[in-house]
Amino acid sequence: MSKKITKSSSAKSGKFPKASGAKASKLVYSFGGGKADGDGSQKSLLGGKGANLAEMTRIDLPVPPGFTITTDVCTYYYDNKRTYQKELQGQIETAVARMEKLLNKGFGDKNKPLLVAVRSGARDSMPGMMDTILNLGLNDETVVALAKLSNNERFAYDCYRRFIQMYGDVVLGVQKAQGEDHEPFETVIEELKSELFPGEEHVEDTRLDAKGQKELVRRFKKLIKDRTGKEFPHNPWEQLKGAVGAVFGSWMNDRAMVYRRKYNIPHEWGTAVNIQAMVFGNTGDNSGSGVAFTRDPASGEKVFYGEFLINAQGEDVVAGVRTPEPVAKLQAIMPGPFKALDRVRGILEKHFKDMQDFEFTIEEGKLFMLQTRNGKRTGLAAIRIAVEMVKEKLIVPETAVERVPADSLAHVLAPIFDLKAIKDGLFLTKGLPAGPGAASGKIYLNADRAEEAAARGEKVLLVRIETSPEDLRGMIAAEGILTARGGVSSHAALVARQMGKVCVCGAGDLIVNYEQKTVTVKGNTYKEGKDFLSIDGTSGEVYAGQIKTAPSEVVQVLIAKTLDGKKSYTYQCFDQLMKWSDKFRRLQIRANADQPDQTLNAIAFGGQGIGLCRTEHMFFEGDRIDAVREMIIAETKEDRAKAIAKLLPFQKGDFIGLFKALKGLPATIRFLDPPLHEFLPHEEHQMRDLAESLGVSAEKVHARVSSLHESNPMLGHRGCRLGIVYPELSEMQARAVFEAAAEVQKMGIKVKPEIMIPLVGFPKELKLQLEIVHSVAKKVAAEKKVKFDYLVGTMIEIPRAALVADDIAKDAQFFSFGTNDLTQTALGMSRDDSGSFLPYYQEVEIVKNNPFASIDQQGVGKLMKLAIEGGRATRPEIKLGICGEHGGDPSSIKFCHDIGLTYVSCSPFRVPVARLAAAQAALAEKAAAKTKKK
Ligand code: ADP
Ligand code: MG
Ligand code: MG
Fold first, then answer.
1. Residue pair 106/5 in contact by the 8 Å Cβ criterion
2. Which of 626, 721, 777, 877 is the most buried (most CB within 10 A)?
């Protein structure tokens, strides 16, 4: 017979401060005993964790009962001076009563105490970003009951001291003060250990017996009293109120905000709080806890993957304090629970239809599920899993395309270590492969210093004993992350994979000395800020120095052609995904390329033409710069014409190469754009050399250089303004294009030039330039007796052009949005000077994203729409493209799709990303249309 449950303390003293005037609504959602108020679809209300706890409960997985306080409460909390809706208290009491009934325990009960975990849970999972409090409900009385019930006094006091420690840290703010190197609670533990085991180093926690744990409890309480002036709260309701408030409070802590900014999670979303009955993985060798993935999150392979620790509470696994065992080993140690776990693995994938990352605890041989979510994965794994799940008929191709983050394709194209260089390199040690790819960098042992070094332009490798969420900024800045402790599901690994960072963790041979700022491995010592290390996140290997990298498999197949596609499974998955993308997308993808080899790369990656050929890049090659300079220095029209005539064959040769590579695909060729001074030397001795080679006086060169000096070159004599003042320049460029076209056409290759005039603001500018182009075209056609299939158009890159687009379209057959300059001119902000304030602008959310990376849709985007409207009014069939840096940015690509552009153009290596992003934009549009219909 069970004893009657009596609560040791009333709920009154721990009430949630309420605000007046709120209307009644459901703020608390219970789950447990096979039933749940909520379900997996309610992630915005219940948070990701809460929604999936409900969902797992519904499909009869073994989830400890509990309840979720909704994100609405968080929103309310911040809107109302950190108070709660008045009905919250009652709803929580009802939910707690439900748990008590299900488990036959009582919150604060002196005989059968109900202990709970208080867990945060935002809509999107934010790994390690907020703090979890375990074993809540323990106090001097309930701990005695727990000891009796478990017949394990050591365990009970271990739980108690952990609870005081977490609560003290998270709720009461007993944390390391500035200048302190260690957490105050850890210091207390170390002190006690050195008293109990004098002379010994690295004493494991497990050696502290019940007496030792009790002593810790005493000292922890004293520490709290000393630091806060307050007693540790014994009333479980007061504990609960404090913990819930701390979770809501942590939504606005620094590391959570950094994370949200990085991943564009709005601050308004808020977090939910989950209160769940505790299960114990730390009762002895028949218990444990772990984290597992239904497939390998690094490679995507369909294997059971994960880790566990015997006799541990889950925090030990994710915190990376002890290095855990691979989950496969569980089979031998606990065959029963392993079987149950493997069955759950199958159920999860069938139900959620995606790779799951789940947390479990085994208490005395019984399995409990604590969390599941769609697993973070590397780009490589994302592609493989999506493609294989289609083969397994778990998902359709549309879902596969939607699911792979477009940017992750960039990871698959990222370099790996050069095999030969690796053989010659000094191998140091091996850790766990946690984020694939190859990275070399100067080592830094602290996140702040790593961030500073990266800001100075150094390549940085962040090396830590283990990482914690505070290291996030340093991880963002680093090329790669190397840790001495922690497994593949540690914080470092999780975050690295998501960011696409190279990561090796748990490299136990590393001795990281924070004081000396050195890393020692096998007798070799490396210094922070001075020495380089290299890590291979695919194999886990660590090397000394900087190691040469080699292209990825996909690049080897498509570009270097050193690998047969049939022999690369990675390539095959990539290719399949690209084929599906091409089926779904409407936008065409072109590349920005100036040279034949770049053009060939772009086509190999699936590019459908050149969206921007910057002709000035051709001016810098070989010794042709001499002719360019001669042209600029020339004083008379005749002299200038002579110099320009020298340039013609070069430029023509370039275009022939380009047209041949394109094999009939279109090429947008932009006429000379940058201010002339960019081509002139500025150093005294260089100017003298130039004068000599041109046979003019040094003074003359000097005078010309200073006459070309501009105080604001971005807004100076550049773009079409050059061709207007020096028409012979445009004439030469047009002739080079058409003579090249004529020659290549005669080889039987189609040629489709699209001549583009930059920086037009006045319709007359375009008109004057096009007169030149058309008259040259006519002349060359007559001379060579050929016909040309060409277009003429303009860039829209200053606001005036967008405003008078209808007029401009009278002459322009196409518009290409030069969003780099359009952003600079629309915002009145120079990209190269924005570094000093733009990061701060993002921090205080004046802008959500860097407008030079992602189109400012409200401002610049509005100008684009205006231009499209004007252009189409005059010329309905007008061709529309974008050639700014934004053409390779997935969210900008979506915008371009939505406003109806014909194509986007980006750098050759971004073409695959753009193909996928374009397909996703098309699928999103379809989905939106469908929901609208409903
Ligand atoms: P995070 O969002 O940082 O992963 P969690 O809420 O999942 O935080 O909690 C961290 C760890 O605490 C979990 O991995 C789990 O092992 C442990 N934990 C959470 N809830 C419980 C519970 N009800 N019983 C036992 N352990 C728990
Ligand atoms: Mg978790
Ligand atoms: Mg421009």
1. yes
2. 777
Q: What is the DSSP secondary structure assignment for residue 476, as one 8-state letter?
A: H
Nearest ligand for residue 274 CA: 1
| CA atoms of 914 and 888, how far apart (whole Å) | 6
Cα separation of 139 and 158, whole Å?
A: 12
* Angle (CA) 805 808 812, round 5°: 115
Report the separation in Å between the CA atom of 462 and the middle of ligand 1, taken as the mean of its atom positions.
27
Looking at residue 23, what DSSP letter applies?
Answer: P
Nearest atom of ligand 1 to the alpha carbon of 128: 3
Mean pLDDT by 10 residues, the chain (934 residues): 46 62 79 96 95 97 98 94 94 97 96 96 74 93 96 93 94 84 88 91 83 96 96 96 92 83 83 96 90 92 92 69 84 95 96 96 96 91 97 97 91 80 88 86 94 94 86 88 83 72 90 94 94 91 90 90 94 97 98 90 96 86 81 88 92 95 97 89 85 88 88 92 95 97 97 98 98 98 96 98 98 97 95 84 88 95 98 97 92 97 92 97 96 80
Q: Strand, helix or coil at 357?
A: strand
- List, in order, residues 6 or more apart from 156 with CB less than 8 Å away: 143, 144, 146, 147, 150
Burial of 859 (0-12, 13-18, 19+ CB in 10 A): middle
- Residue 601 tokens read as 């790369």
- Ligand 1 binding pocket (C-beta < 6 A) is 64, 117, 119, 128, 132, 134, 276-279, 289, 313-315, 318, 359, 361, 370-371
Q: How many DSSP H helices and E strands does the chain contain?
A: 37, 32
Active site residue 906: no
Tally of residues, the chain: 934
Backbone dihedral region of 656: left (phi > 0), alpha (psi from -120 to 50 degrees) or beta? alpha
CA dihedral 169, 170, 174, 175 (to 10 degrees): 80
